[in-house]
Amino acid sequence: MTMRRIVVVGNGIAGLTACDSLRSTGFDGELTVVGAERHQPYSRPALSKALLHGDDDLQAHELPQPTHDATELLGVSASGLDVDARVVRLDGGGELPYDGLVIASGSRAKRLAPLDGAAAPQRGGTRGQLPSRELTLRTIEDAVLLKELVASRPSVIVIGGGPLGMEVASGCLHMGCEVTLVSDVTPLSRQLGVHLAGIFTSAAIRRGLKVGGGGRARLAGSDGGRRVVLADGTELEADLVVTAIGDEPNVEWLAGSGLLNNGSLRVDSRGRLRPDIVAAGDVAFFPTLRGVQRIPLWTSAIDQAKAAAVGLLQGDAAPGFTFQPYFWTEGFGLALKAVGFTPVVGKPDYCEAGEGTDSLLLRWEHQDGSGTAAAINYRIPIPKLRRLANAGPEVLQRTVAAGV
Ligand SMILES: Cc1cc2nc3c(=O)[nH]c(=O)nc-3n(C[C@H](O)[C@H](O)[C@H](O)COP(=O)(O)OP(=O)(O)OC[C@H]3O[C@@H](n4cnc5c(N)ncnc54)[C@H](O)[C@@H]3O)c2cc1C
């Protein structure tokens, strides 16, 4: 069918990229984007990096102004979907009819305590006004609040040893806070593997991070609070507790639409749920070389959204989506870039030391023949890192020598 009206739900990087890609693929009809946040799309990765690192640069998260010429309904949520009538229902009434729909509603921070709205964290720069409930970091508002709170150098417990927890811990440490990271496994080992996790954890401990855990931690009391109980019963207390225990997809508005499969959205290799509905970004599970997965990363959202836009307009004629993860993180004086699937197992099969301490270029070969390349404090453009991941060191050296 000819698409004259396309609605995009979600105005994060996946929604923005989908709008841009629809236009660059030739869609010149009516485009409407619905975004629950009141802001233009911004960089979430910047929130846990630049925004927590002491300077007053609150622009680090900004992205260029959109040029897709869509009608933007910001501060508006989609509350329902009727796939037969082809309408998106909006919070507070109103409906948006569509010929094509892009679902890009992303995810939100998982919490240890339920968010009942009764005691949501409030601003307050002094110790006496510190919130007595769990903080999370997902939105620009969360980042501004956290930055304000850590300015008075409170003691902080961060629960969650993934990349986000480690970045928050690094930022708080940098701001002069005493920080304890609570993690049930070696921090970052689940995401990156033991070798890379060890490099980061050693650097973190050298910089003064206390690491504890050894099992599932919980908050003392039912409403969150500043006390944390470890798996062995030990109780820790701090001025602030920040949890970074993962994310959960924003799919509630799709209840009853018939699109959810055991509560999740599973798209095909062209991002499609149906010929007229695609999904992309943190909200979606998609086929990868390692099975159907949700990969809640920035470049994953961008690559999926590009494929989904073409999938919506061109159907079976669209090229299938092949995905290679790209991931980066910063903290404790280290900057890591990695191309390929992680976690990596065992020691790297290739290791080159660069200039300066902690400067490393590493590669792992996987059983399926694919590779993962990682650069720590090592200057290398992403395309070259990709070539190292895909082709190995000899080919990389030849192409670099040839200036390719
Ligand atoms: C602090 C932080 C640091 C990160 N750092 C990194 C990093 O270093 N590297 C990396 O690769 N990734 C990182 N990520 C992950 C990365 O930011 C996400 O994978 C990416 O932002 C996902 O984009 P998205 O558009 O799919 O979802 P989102 O960014 O979640 O955007 C979805 C948007 O849809 C809106 N929405 C939800 N429901 C509705 C509804 N019903 N109606 C209308 N709008 C709705 C949401 O409010 C949101 O604005 C980080 C994430 C965070 C939070």
Fill in the keyword field for this structure.
binds flavin-adenine dinucleotide, 5-stranded antiparallel β-sheet, 6-stranded mixed β-sheet, FAD/NAD(P)-binding domain, globular, single chain, 404 residues, alpha/beta
Strand content: 25-35%
Net shape? globular
Number of strand elements: 26
What is the CATH superfamily label of the largest domain? Answer: FAD/NAD(P)-binding domain
Number of helices: 9
Arithmetic mean pLDDT: 90
**Strands across the major sheet, in which order?**
3-2-1-7-19-18
Largest sheet: 6 strands, mixed
| Top CATH class of the largest domain | Alpha Beta
Based on the structure given, which CATH architecture of the largest domain is correct?
Answer: 3-Layer(bba) Sandwich
Bound small molecules, deduplicated: flavin-adenine dinucleotide
How many whole angstroms does the radius of gyration measure? Answer: 22 Å
In words, what does this structure look like?
The structure is a single chain. With 404 residues, the protein is α/β, with parallel strands linked by helices. The protein folds into 3 domains: 5-109 and 248-317, FAD/NAD(P)-binding domain (3-Layer(bba) Sandwich), CATH 3.50.50; 127-243, FAD/NAD(P)-binding domain (3-Layer(bba) Sandwich), CATH 3.50.50.60; 344-401, no CATH class. It has 9 helices and 26 strands. It has helices at 13-24, 44-47, 140-150, 163-174, 189-192, 194-206, 298-314, 382-391, 393-401, and strands spanning 5-9, 30-35, 71-74, 78-82, 87-90, 95-97, 100-103, 107-109, 156-159, 179-183, 210-213, 218-219, 227-229, 235-237, 240-243, 247-249, 265-266, 272-274, 277-279, 284-288, 291-293, 326-331, 334-339, 350-353, 360-365, 371-376. A 6-stranded mixed beta sheet has the order 3-2-1-7-19-18, covered by helices on one side. A 5-stranded antiparallel beta sheet has the order 22-23-26-25-24, sandwiched between helices. A hairpin with a 5-residue loop joins strand 25 and strand 26. Flavin-adenine dinucleotide is lined by residues 9-15, 34-37, 44-45, 47-48, 77-78, 104-107, 137-138, 164, 250, 253, 281-282, 296-299, 301, 327-329.
